[in-house]
Design a protein that fits this description.
This protein has about 300 residues and is mainly alpha-helical. It is built from 14 helices and no strands. The longest helix is centred in the first third of the chain and has 28 residues, at about 55-85.
Amino acid sequence: MASATSAVIFGFSFLFTKAALDSLDMFQLLGSRFLVAAIFMSALRVSKRINVEITSGKVKDLLLVAILQPILYFIFETIGVDLTSASESGILIALIPVAVAVFAAWILKERLTLWQWLSILASVGGVVLITLPRFQGGSGQLTGILALLGAVLAGALYQIFSKKASGTSSPVEVTYMMMWVGALFFSGLGIWKSVRTSGLPSYFSAFISPDTLLAILYLGILSSVVAFFCMNYALSRLTPSKSAVFINLTPVVSVLAGVLFRGESFAPIQLLGAVVVLLSVWGVGQNQESASSPP
């Protein structure tokens, strides 16, 4: 349920990202998103709604997770999306569950059945079917493709090391560190860019619009705090391969959100892709208990 919830929230986040980017640049958006998330989690901590105890023994593992996600993942994804087509981006990002399965087998000694491997690969095929109607040839620029592969690598390793961090830190502590590291890094970049180009006031003036504020609140509280907490919670309870395949539910939700709220078209082949992804998620869950640990 936690994995599915994070996929649904991330799926709807594309609607709010499009709205926010009408008045913000990427680093303004990322900085404000994670700053809202960090302040929200700090308020919960001060009010004792959550318990966060980050000791010196936990910092190393938590920082590694935070560097992988959100910093490296969002940098690589932003560059990759900018230099390739939306379809190319969607297809390559869909490789994350495959990369997670490979790293989980190598680093965590996780075992998967042949059926689960086939289900993971089928989920990638489902994403290809979903994005195929929007494919326009794409630029195919090598830099963009390499950046997206960097995002795949960072996203996969985040899942692995979040799982490892769950041995000493709670999902709340992992999420708390991710939000604050992301806030400091991306806010710093955004402010630095504004000072160099149009002055510091321009960084804050873009947040006046109610639509922009609503988008930032959704992205900061739901798409950052709630969604990443759900992912970290799922990773503390499930094997990374089982949790990661839910990532490919995100394009299913984003396409449905576009149809329902933006009047976008929905081709029959996309429906087939959505069914394939849903069946793949079910397939990875089969025989999980016997495949999740080495003999």
